[in-house]
């Protein structure tokens, strides 16, 4: 038995349940996207209130993959933390490792050998290419285009080969160490890296031509999911998503770390702030990273033989104090706030991951859009669920 009630701009319906129980409901439908894989990117849940086919409100609900990484950091020494830190964004493992070692080295006042600095910069850019190629292939797939995925994975495997050769790992490289890198570059590795970069650069237009000339892709992405600068500032959105809305911020240029201060870092921006602009930024950033990789290779060739790391004591203790080290990871600003009490484990190690902030802005972006546009918007946010939940 139901009894309709009317209110301001909304119709409510009282529904009888069981032995005379009553529950107040509205004509709007509550739609849960996830937490299974229909959310398209893993265990993320979106709670939507929809009016017909149009989204009225959206609430991202996170935490389904939470593993307490920050508390795990606190009971492991500074060598062991690296193996945990590279896993929250499994597409950016090398970049994740950097935040930890940079924070510890700063606390120690340690100067890293110049060969390690340039090799780290090179590997960070190769990791950025791997990250972006994954999204360049998977995003069109979510809109119904399967072919770009094969092209993107061909280029990923080309870069992956040199990353696997130097580190021995395919996803979780575990190649950074406090004071440098695990070991020196293999003989002939720079030549093979140069060839891999050249091959990817030569074939990248295949992906570009395949997608940007597609009328369906343009119709599904242009003017959809527009994110303005003010909202970006309020939510702390960073990385390619922010730069697609005209936020000209990149730590590699603005607060250089590693060898970026000696490199011409071109910051790619767009002004439209829609799904199409975000995809364009990602593609152009691959080209920039390939150029930076070439520059790092040339510098490494010119350096004389030397150490790739610093010798460390058997038990590494960090002096009492605190510091914040942040880097421009492939998905945005990735920061580690380290607090030490002079022990071999951190007293506190807080992780600021880019995906968490980037996904919260969905509550502002999705309302007013059709449900069919939700997938296009969600895919263009380029997030990793482990990077949200930590």
UniProtKB/TrEMBL annotation:
The EC number(s) this enzyme carries: 7.1.1.-
Topology relative to the membrane: Peripheral membrane protein
InterPro entries: NADH_Q_OxRdtase_suD, NADH_UbQ_OxRdtase_49kDa_CS, NDH1_su_D/H, NiFe-Hase_large
Classification via PROSITE patterns: COMPLEX1_49K (PS00535)
Location of the protein in the cell: Cell membrane
Reactions the enzyme catalyzes: a quinone + NADH + 5 H(+)(in) = a quinol + NAD(+) + 4 H(+)(out)
Keywords: Cell membrane, Membrane, NAD, Quinone, Translocase, Transport
Residue ranges of every copy of the NADH-quinone oxidoreductase subunit D domain listed in the record: 143-313, 316-390
A Pfam family annotated for this UniProt entry: Complex1_49kDa
Source organism, top-level taxon: Bacteria
Main location per the UniProt record: membrane
Record function comment: NDH-1 shuttles electrons from NADH, via FMN and iron-sulfur (Fe-S) centers, to quinones in the respiratory chain. The immediate electron acceptor for the enzyme in this species is believed to be a menaquinone. Couples the redox reaction to proton translocation (for every two electrons transferred, four hydrogen ions are translocated across the cytoplasmic membrane), and thus conserves the redox energy in a proton gradient.
HAMAP family with a match to the protein in the record: NDH1_NuoD (MF_01358)
Subunit structure: NDH-1 is composed of 14 different subunits. Subunits NuoB, C, D, E, F, and G constitute the peripheral sector of the complex.
Matching PANTHER family: NADH DEHYDROGENASE [UBIQUINONE] IRON-SULFUR PROTEIN 2, MITOCHONDRIAL (PTHR11993:SF10), NADH-UBIQUINONE OXIDOREDUCTASE 49 KDA SUBUNIT (PTHR11993)
Family statement: Belongs to the complex I 49 kDa subunit family.
Protein's UniProt name: NADH-quinone oxidoreductase subunit D
Species of the source: Sphaerisporangium flaviroseum
Origin organism lineage: Bacteria, Bacillati, Actinomycetota, Actinomycetes, Streptosporangiales
Gene giving rise to this polypeptide: nuoD
